[in-house]
Amino acid sequence: MESTTSVKTSEESRAAPAQEANRHSWEAFNQDCFEVQKILDENKLLIAEINQNHESRMPENLTRNVALIQELKNNVNRVAGLYSDLSSTFVNFMKGEVKQKSGTITFQKPSAMLGQKRTRAD
């Protein structure tokens, strides 16, 4: 039987931190997506309850709607913040390659893209 050994090249060794950073970025992006969906599902239930209370026209239900609408407003603000985070994470992830310098990971634009402008077809 032949035994095979795996030897990492210096290029593979340098690529490992970038791949790890990409994996962490993707996990953070994915987690934020799940959080957004959870809040949106909660909002759907809140809206249904608010509508039901409104249709009942009972004073205690209408009073309860004040708190429910406030909760809905807070959820919408949380979703807006999460979308902002998602946008930043996605842009940084797609903008360029991940480089590791002195133990910290930073996102940098690939040198081939520097100075290029996007053109739009008319």
UniProtKB/TrEMBL annotation:
Which biological processes are named by the entry's GO terms? positive regulation of circadian rhythm; rhythmic process
Q: Which GO terms describe its cellular component?
A: nucleus
Q: Which InterPro entries match?
A: EARLY_FLOWERING_4, EARLY_FLOWERING_4_dom
What main location does UniProt list?
nucleus
Q: Where in the cell is it found?
A: Nucleus
Q: What is this protein called?
A: Protein EARLY FLOWERING 4 domain-containing protein
Q: Which UniProt keywords apply?
A: Biological rhythms, Nucleus
Q: Name one Pfam family in it.
A: Elf4
